[in-house]
Design goal:
Blueprint: H1 12-15, H2 18-32, H3 39-50
């Protein structure tokens, strides 16, 4: 059985562009600061928009 050498593994984060990393960081800040919506909240809002 071959063991995977941890020094050969690449972290997916290192493969992202700066723009992608900044976008992820911005989303994480939104979550930390409560600027998110649940699926149910979005579903209800869209339903109201579609029934106008």
């Amino acid at each position: 059985m071959l063991r995977e050498n941890s020094t050969d593994r690449k972290d997916w984060w290192d493969e992202l562009s700066d723009e992608e990393k900044n976008g992820i960081d911005e989303c994480l800040r939104d979550v930390e600061e409560g600027r998110i919506f649940t699926y149910e909240e979005v579903k209800d809002k869209v339903k109201k928009w579609l029934t106008k």
